[in-house]
Amino acid sequence: MIRFNAVNKTYPGGFNALRNISFDLDAGEMAFLTGHSGAGKSTLLKLISVMEKPTAGQILINNSDISRINYSQIPYMRRNIGMIFQNHNLLMDRTIFDNVALPLVIENVGHKETRKRVEAALEKVGLSSKIKCYPHMLSGGEQQRVGIARAIVNKPPIILADEPTGNLDPKLSLDIIRLFEEFNSVGVCVLIATHDLGLIARMKYRTLTLKQGTMITDGLSHSEEEEE
Ligand SMILES: Nc1ncnc2c1ncn2[C@@H]1O[C@H](COP(=O)(O)OP(=O)(O)OP(=O)(O)O)[C@@H](O)[C@H]1O
């Protein structure tokens, strides 16, 4: 589903954020991406979502080489990906309905179908009752779940989450991860960037670790290795 082959990313100005990164993430796989602040986690997610281009190497999504696509193909590629941001990136002057509907509006989905899909997405994250609210009327955890509903509303095969539990307490963090597990259980490929080593240790998922732009480990989280 996602394949990196010897990928490098140097930002304009010369900073080398990722060096020689290679890994595969299969359809239906769920993994964590971790590493210190500045290690390159967000950069790696931005490369997958075509917000940045690699300087060298190859990135395949569903066997398409996204390092070689042109501008007109980018929106088409992005339909495969639901992106969740730590700061939610919600439009504060729009209702929860409008926020979640955004990817469908961009795709010109009809009004009736949009309503059906937004209601289904909000039900999935347990926020049906907030459909007419504005983001400031919701707690941080609820806003995060609106961001998740928006990311899954067009049923992408890949979900990328950048520090999705960053501002949440341990109980809410676990609730969010459980939601990702639900999507994963129906075949969605999920990659979660996080600093939260406690959370990673409690879960039994593959963990990719970056250090200064290099991938230093790719394996199961510690707890599973200890059990085996
Ligand atoms: N647009 C940019 N231009 C130049 N340098 C950048 C740019 N974006 C990121 N960088 C640099 O690339 C490095 C990796 O940044 P990135 O945001 O990927 O790290 P991160 O692991 O996600 O960090 P954090 O956990 O703090 O969010 C950092 O040193 C950062 O300063």
TrEMBL record:
It is a peripheral membrane protein. PROSITE patterns: ABC_TRANSPORTER_1, ABC_TRANSPORTER_2. Residues 2-228 form the ABC transporter domain. One of its GO terms (molecular function) is ATP binding. Its main location: membrane. GO terms for biological process: cell division. InterPro entries: AAA+_ATPase (IPR003593), ABC_transporter-like_ATP-bd (IPR003439), ABC_transporter-like_CS (IPR017871), ABC_transpr_LolD-like (IPR015854), Cell_div_FtsE (IPR005286), P-loop_NTPase (IPR027417). The keyword Ubl conjugation does not apply. It is found in: Cell inner membrane; Cell membrane. It comes from the Bacteria. Keywords: ATP-binding, Cell cycle, Cell division, Cell membrane, Membrane, Nucleotide-binding. NCBIfam families: FtsE. Homodimer. Forms a membrane-associated complex with FtsX. Part of the ABC transporter FtsEX involved in cellular division. Important for assembly or stability of the septal ring. Belongs to the ABC transporter superfamily. This is Cell division ATP-binding protein FtsE. It comes from Thalassotalea fonticola.
